[in-house]
Automatic annotation (TrEMBL):
Superkingdom, taxonomy of origin: Bacteria
Transmembrane segments: 20-37, 82-103, 128-147
UniProt cross-references to PANTHER family, sorted A to Z: MITOCHONDRIAL METAL TRANSPORTER 1-RELATED
Record's bilayer topology term: Multi-pass membrane protein
Protein name as it appears in the record: Cation transporter
Keyword Transmembrane: yes
Record-linked Pfam families: Cation_efflux
Keyword Transit peptide: no
UniProt region (Disordered), positions on chain: 302-321
Lineage of source species: Bacteria, Pseudomonadati, Pseudomonadota, Alphaproteobacteria, Rhodobacterales
Comp. bias regions, Pro residues: 312-321
């Protein structure tokens, strides 16, 4: 594999430090929210979202260590795609929990379950618990939003989808906090439905983030063409690589797929299956010949590359099967 440039290494190291800060703040937020959430549906939903927010930073730190491991006999291509797996797992967790929370808030609305927020005593004085909930929600917004805005440019520069998902969740946390505060204020004004409605708004936001991330992660796991970081659209790099390699005229099509933050380009015959069963038998595939569908060419680009539709001359680009 190619070593990452020093600049990318520094950005990943900075991102790792931000993720450790995120974990620390999130744990403190989860504890504070748990202590004051009472029976509020909006508070419970916000607390669950904050708990789910632990997944992306933890996955980023884990996958960052694993992706640099050297290839082994069991994993000859290395562990670059562990980031893809982490991205899929975080997207699945978000989508599942978002759907569950929508069901929960809808049930509360249909059953017309009015939440109650009582009082608590602080230094001998009675205080409406809702004020503490509002303070906790405000605290749950500020650190993640600041950290999320710092992570976004790093995610784009390092092409890290797990980091990007985490940064988007953090940067959008103000919506969760605002919805939760609106639900608490609604309860105080006697609007029983405001709490469940706020919880539903938060849940829809969770589900939308999860489904968008899942769509991109599934395409990557299925060897789809590389996608843009925040969109299912194909990355412009694919067309650039394909156009430039095909201009060399080696009689092959170019297939590009994503493997974690990296990209692999293969030169393969353009028509159908790359090799037939008979051809696979000739190179020793024996009874498993039907499983071998392509033998790629790995090329080392230099000035001696051919452009006449034939293989490059001896001493030119490497060809390995």
């Amino acid at each position: 594999m190619n070593e990452l440039p020093d600049e990318i290494q520094r950005k990943l190291a900075k991102a790792a430090r931000l993720e450790w800060w995120s974990l620390g703040f999130l744990i403190s937020i989860i504890v504070v929210m748990y202590l004051v959430m009472g029976s509020s549906q909006a508070m419970k939903t916000a607390w669950i979202e904050d708990t789910l927010s632990l997944i992306p930073p933890a996955l980023f730190l884990i996958t960052r260590r694993l992706e640099t491991k050297a290839p082994t006999r069991h994993y000859p291509y290395g562990f670059h795609r562990v980031g893809s797996l982490g991205f899929f797992l975080s997207a699945t967790a978000l989508s599942t929990m978002g759907a569950f929370l929508i069901y929960s808030s809808a049930t509360a609305l249909l059953l017309r379950e009015p939440p109650t927020i009582g009082n608590t005593q602080i230094f001998g004085h009675d205080l409406w618990l809702g004020w503490l909930m509002i303070v906790a929600l405000a605290y749950s917004v500020v650190p993640p939003v600041i950290l999320g805005r710092k992570k976004l440019p790093l995610a784009r520069q390092t092409m890290d989808k797990v980091l990007h998902t985490d940064a988007q969740m953090n940067a959008a946390d103000w919506k969760t906090g605002l919805a939760g505060i609106a639900g608490i204020v609604g309860i105080g004004m006697g609007w029983w439905w405001a709490d469940a409605a706020a919880a539903g708004f938060i849940a829809v936001d969770i589900l939308r983030d999860g489904l968008r991330a899942m769509r991109i992660s599934v395409s990557e796991l299925l060897d789809g063409a590389p996608r843009q970081l925040d969109s299912p659209d194909i990355h412009p790099l694919v067309d650039r690589i394909g156009r430039n390699l095909e201009q060399l005229g080696w009689g092959s099509g170019v297939k590009v797929r994503e493997t974690g933050r990296y990209v692999r380009a293969s030169l393969e015959p353009e028509t159908g299956r790359a090799i037939s069963v008979d051809e696979a038998l000739k190179i020793g595939a024996e009874n498993d010949a039907w499983r071998l569908i392509v033998v790629n060419r790995t090329v080392r680009m230099n000035s001696s590359a051919g452009s006449d539709g034939k293989d490059p001359p001896p001493g030119g680009p490497d060809q390995r099967k």
